[in-house]
Amino acid sequence: MSTINTKASSLIRQYQKNAAPFAQPILEKLRTIVRSTDTTIQEDWKWNIPNFHQNGMLCAMASFKKHVSFTFFKGAEINDTFKLFTGDCSAKSMRTIKFTELSQVNVVQLKNYINQAVLINNTSLKLPTTREAFDIPNLLKKALNKNSIAKHNYENLAYTYRKEYALHISTAKKEATQLRRLNKVMLYLENNLKMHEKL
Predict the structure, then answer these.
(1) What CATH class is the domain 8-122?
(2) Residue 88's pLDDT is what?
(3) Structure confidence at residue 130 (pLDDT)
(4) pLDDT of res. 125
(5) Distance between CA 162 and CA 140 in Å, rounded?
(6) Where are the domains of the chain?
(7) What is the DSSP string of the chain?
């Protein structure tokens, strides 16, 4: 079992303070909703973003330039009754909700999803551990072979993030788009960042 970061609460407060003005009230409301839904949920800090733990990793929130993401680690097992999950998450288990303004945060709906997530963790419902194979685009292979730092960082990423980078390039229909995405991917990998982290 992973260890809870004892400084999580103060780190989360600082994270909220440093977020963009539009994101600060959204982050605070999400945090309040999570903490009030189930008193057994613990605040945690992983990957430099606020996490919440309850018999395992439960959910996380992150601030970006134009939106706030709220991610459930086992979201694929949650009944998306209110159609909140975005369709752009390629992860097998995780599902994400995105907010651009405070009025989009619905307390009742989120509590429903959080309660489902707690139940899933407590009953140890798990998806199959087998992982689907994915192809690394030739463009990415060639670029990685020419850049030892990016290659090292890519190979040390978790399966989900390696797949996300590969699909980001391979799903582009035009060669120009693939090349543009490749440049971004290589820049992120050189800095050892995941796709949705800030550069």
Answers:
(1) alpha beta
(2) 64
(3) 54
(4) 44
(5) 11
(6) 8-122, 138-190
(7) -PPPPTTHHHHHHHHHHHS-TTHHHHHHHHHHHHHHH-TT-EEEEETTEEEEESSSEEEEEEE-SS-EEEEETTGGGS--TT--S-S----SS-EEEEESSGGG--HHHHHHHHHHHHHHHHTT----------PPPHHHHHHHHT-HHHHHHHHTS-HHHHHHHHHHHHT-SSHHHHHHHHHHHHHHHHTT--TTS--
13-27, 41-55, 66-80, 128-142: least confident range: 128-142
- How confident is the model over 155-186, as pLDDT tens digits? 988 888 888 899 999 998 899 999 999 999 99
- Give the type of residue at 40: T
